[in-house]
Amino acid sequence: MNQDSVSGLWVYLSARPLLGLTMTLVAYGIAWRIHQRFKSHPLANPVLIAVLLLVTVLTLTHTPYQRYFDGAQFVHFLLGPATVALAIPLYGQLQRLRRLALPLGVTLLIGSAIAIASAWAVGAWLGADEQTLISLAPKSVTTPIAMAVAEALGGLPSLTAALVIATGILGAMTAQGVFHLLRIRDAAAQGFAIGIAAHGIGTARAFQLSPEAGAFSALAMAANGLLTAVLVPWLIPWLKALFAAH
Questions:
Q1: pTM of the predicted protein model
Q2: pLDDT of 8 higher than 70
Q3: Which of 237, 246, 231, 215 is nearest to 114 (CA)?
Q4: pLDDT per residue over 141-156, tens digit each?
Q5: Do residues 199 and 142 lie in contact, with contact meaning Cβ atoms separated by under 8 Å?
């Protein structure tokens, strides 16, 4: 097949609405094979590899992101049912959840507040403007909630989405090393920490550690999304006053 034929085929495919969906599935399939080849090593994160592959293809073909997303939005639609389905493994941990309700509640409140405040503090220390700081604040929760919170408070939803994905990938890649360093071996503690810090991408990693860690990560991800939506508007005036004084 010569260059003209390849160019003609790409022009034809780029006009098809399912191109984005096909690209997403192929990129993740390749990323998953690479992840398996490296024996599920956390640094070979399949989400990161798939994102890099897609960015490379879109850049080389000068394909606008909106055209890609028009075809890939079916995957975006499935995020909702997939999130709800996480309740199934969580149901299997119901008795243990009841016993741990108080420590989990305290951990959730402290973890959520620290995630918001630390993001704001680092951004302020680096000289970010207020709109960027607001975009940073909800970075540890799932994308739809984070984008809605940022937009409602004057942040940039597109920047928030990128930060959410980066946070999830970083959390998934480093969680196991942090647990080893701090000697955290309890699966429930591992999963709950991942869910608070790294939302859905981290939860996918937690299920690779163990079903119990995945179930507790799913719980933390859902609860942290709700709590962050409440805490961010309440904490921002305090954070503004605190860092304006320095």
A1: 0.80
A2: no
A3: 231
A4: 988 889 999 999 999 9
A5: yes
